[in-house]
Amino acid sequence: MKFVPGPWPSESVIDGLVSKSGGYFIYASTVINFTDEEGFSPADRLDQILNVSNSAPITPSESAPFAELDKLYLQILSSCPTTNLPILKRILGFIVNHWDVDMCVIEALLCLPRGHVKLILRGLRSLVSFWELLGDVRIRVNHASFGDFLHDQERSKDYHVDSEECMYTGFCDAFSWGRNMLGISVEGGIEPALRHQKGLSVTVTLFS
Fold first, then answer.
1. Which of 28, 45, 81, 99 sits in a 20 to 30 Å window from 201, CA-based?
2. Are 17 and 31 in contact (CB under 8 A)?
3. % helix, strand, coil for the chain, step of 5
4. Rounded Cα gap, residues 58 and 167, in angstroms
């Protein structure tokens, strides 16, 4: 008698995911993108979603309207090595605060080797997308809800992205990069450097 495997995933698994989605399409879309990401086993990735990792406590308030979506976001983020967490948060800060951003700009400001951003974000393609514009590779979040999640410390826990801190560190990164490119010394303070004869100028725009 020939064994005929049943459908994958099973109806019970699909029903469970539908229940967890709470009616939010973004939950279903993120699950599909996560399990279908190139270079990973779909079965293993689905198991990760169905079985919360013991090494990454995921405990958002069960009464929160996006509780299951938050669990999904946290579980996907927790798949990244913890050694990359500080730089991961810096990269995510650039992306969620600017909607889409040039990958080369991020690498230049953070002094990362070319292509390193893609390596750090490997495994997160269900949350962020890479696309080309006039020869440049740009990155953006797949859904605004992920940005809302990262900005809310109670929801995102260790992955929280503080907008004001990101703006300040982004300014420092940009100033340092520009100073190094033009060979400007800041021994006399920032103000003289901003008025340097080589013409470096910095404009800071604050968003409320």
1. 99
2. yes
3. 55, 5, 40
4. 28
Report the distance separating Cα 208 and Cα 187, nearest Å. 32
Structure tokens at 174: 């940009």
Mapping DSSP to helix (H, G, I), strand (E, B) and coil, where does residue 17 land?
A: helix
CB 53 within 8 A of CB 142: no
- pLDDT tens track, the chain, 208 positions: 454 556 778 888 888 888 777 777 888 888 888 888 887 888 888 888 887 533 444 455 554 667 888 999 999 998 888 788 989 999 999 898 877 789 988 898 888 899 899 999 988 989 999 988 788 889 999 998 999 999 999 999 999 988 777 666 766 666 665 555 555 554 544 555 455 444 444 444 433 3
Q: What is the largest CA-CA distance in the chain?
A: 85
